[in-house]
Amino acid sequence: MPSSKAKPAEAPGRSRRANKRPSIPSRTTSDPDEPETGLPVEDFSEHPPLAPGVKYRRILLKLSGEALMGQQGYGIEDATLSQIADEVIDVHSLGVDIGIVIGGGNIFRGLAASSRGMDRASADYMGMLATVINSLALQDALERRGLKTRVLSALEMERLAEPYIRRRAIRHLEKGRLVIFAAGTGNPFFTTDTAASLRAMEIGADIVMKATRVDGVYDKDPQKHKDARMFRRLSYLDVLNRNLAVMDSTAISLCRDNNLPILVFNMTKPGNIRRVVLGEPLGTLVLDERGEPREKSPGP
Question: What is the dotted CATH code of the domain comprising 59-286?
Fold first, then answer.
C-alpha cells in the first residue's frame, strides 16, 4: 500500500539542477588574494616551469614612461606598447617571475612641473597618476595576449587596481601572474627609480633591470659625444661618486645597503630582456664588488 506521506514541495523557482556545483573551477572568494565577489572565480594559471639556463628567477623590470612614447612626442604608441608586451611575455614563458615599475614621464613629469613653480608634492602626485595610466595600458596589452596580470597601486583606487600589499604581490608572482607596481612609492619626493628598488627588495627579486634607449652606462652622453665609453661593471660607490645617470642616489643607496644588483641595458633591441635573463653579458652591471675581482672595462 503506497505511503500517504507527501514529498516536501521544492522551493519556487528552484530545481534539483540548481544544487549541482558549477562546472568552472571551484576556487572561490575564500582566497584572500581575490576580490570579495561571493562567486566562483576562474582558476589561476599554473606557474611556468623554469627553463634551463635561466640566471635570474625573479626580476624587477623598470621602464621609463618615455619608453612607451616610441617615435611620438607624448602619450603611448601602440606599436611600442605591443613590442614591450611581446618581449615581457617571451621572458615570462621561461618561468621567470616578473614585477614591473613604470614611470609617467610620457604623460606628466612632476619634477619638471615643480621647476615651473607648481607645488612639488602636488606635482609628484600628478606624476603618480600618470604611472597608473601607463600601468593599465600595459596590463591591457599583456592580458590581450593571454598573460594574467595584476596592477597593484601604492595609491588606493580600488575601481582601477588592487592596493599594494607586499604579501599579496608575492602571492600573485608565485601563481604565475605578472605584477605591475603603479603610483611609485605612494609618497611625493621619491622617484619611480626608488620605487623600483624598494619593490624589488620587498618581493625578493634577484636583480633590478633598468630598460633604457642606450646599451648601458657611459662616462658621458653617447648621443652627444661620439667618444663616449661604456662601462661593463660598476660598483655602487662608483655610480655615486661619479654622479653617473643610472638611477637617483636614493635608489642606488637602497640597492647598495641590501646588495641588490642593477643592470642597465638597451630595450629597443628586440630580445635583449631574454638574453639578459639567460645570462648573456649585456649592458652595465652595478653591484657590490668588495671581495671579488674587478673585470677590466672599456671605461676610465
Answer: 3.40.1160.10
The pLDDT value given to residue 188: 96
DSSP string, 110-141: HHHHHHTT--HHHHHHHHHHHHHHHHHHHHHH
Q: Domain segments of the chain: what residues?
A: 59-286
In three-state secondary structure terms, 143 is helix
Quote the DSSP letter at residue 240.
H
C-alpha distance from residue 58 to each of 25, 121, 205 (Å): 28, 33, 5
CA 41 to chain centre: 24
Residue 165, beta-bridge partner list = none
Q: What is the mean pLDDT of the chain?
A: 84
**Alpha helices (runs of H) in the chain, residue ranges in sequence order:** 78-92, 110-115, 120-143, 166-174, 192-203, 236-242, 249-258, 272-277
User: Please, are residues 42 and 24 in contact by the beta-carbon 8 Å criterion?
Assistant: yes
pTM (two decimals): 0.81
Torsion of CA 119, 120, 121, 122, to 10 degrees: 50
66-102: burial string, b at 16+ Cβ within 10 Å, e else: ebbbbeeeeebbeebbebbbebbbebbebbbbbbbbb
Instruction: Provide Rg for the chain, Cα atoms.
Output: 24
